[in-house]
TrEMBL record:
It comes from Laccaria amethystina LaAM-08-1. This is Ran guanine nucleotide release factor. The keyword Protein transport applies. One of its GO terms (cellular component) is nucleus. SUPFAM superfamilies: Mog1p/PsbP-like (SSF55724).
């Protein structure tokens, strides 16, 4: 079981619970101002939180599939599969939108290899309607790779548990972030 901390994102405008031992990718490489990127220390699992312009699809299932397909395109995925799309209601009483959650997988070629990696994708979409913003959280969990970054079944279960906790604890504290 991971030790969890409440992590400030985007200068504290958003907070969410994450494993305490994550590596902030901005400490090792440049990360755009519209993203927060974290890496697991002992695998190739990564978390990306991204502030995006609201996409055209109005229906929640179409909107999250648009973002999932966009990630697949950016990764040059050879195949994609959506396992499920659900809504996780925000029942805390704050103004953070409910999460639209997609679980899927992508086969992604890495570094010009012929055999693609099998990556599980856990994605959450928080639509900030009045600001025309889509906040997208993506957990990339490689389950089969040619390098040593893949996780086994226990690592996959832990990443999914971490994702679930991240999504249910995700809270927007300052909407001025989207000015």
């Amino acid at each position: 079981m991971s030790s969890l901390v409440t992590r400030p994102l985007f200068g504290g405008a958003i907070v969410a619970e994450t494993p305490a031992n994550l590596i902030d990718a901005s400490d090792v490489r440049q990360v755009p101002d519209t993203q927060e990127v974290f890496l697991y220390p002992n695998s190739s699992v990564s978390i990306i939180v991204e502030i995006l312009q609201r996409v055209e699809p109005v229906h929640f299932e179409d909107a999250i599939k648009f973002h999932f397909d966009s990630v697949a395109h950016d990764n040059s995925a050879q195949s994609v599969l959506v396992h499920s799309v659900t809504v996780v209601l925000n029942d805390r009483g704050d103004d953070t939108p409910s999460a639209i959650v997609l679980r899927g997988s992508q086969r992604v070629p890495k570094f010009n290899r012929t055999t693609p990696d099998d990556v599980r994708i856990f994605m959450a979409l928080f639509r900030v309607e009045h600001k025309e913003i889509d906040l997208v959280v993506t957990f990339n969990v490689p389950v089969m790779t040619l390098d040593r970054g893949a996780v086994g079944s226990e690592g996959l279960e832990q990443a999914e548990s971490d994702f679930n906790k991240f999504v249910t604890s995700f809270r927007i504290c300052d909407y001025g972030l989207f000015a």
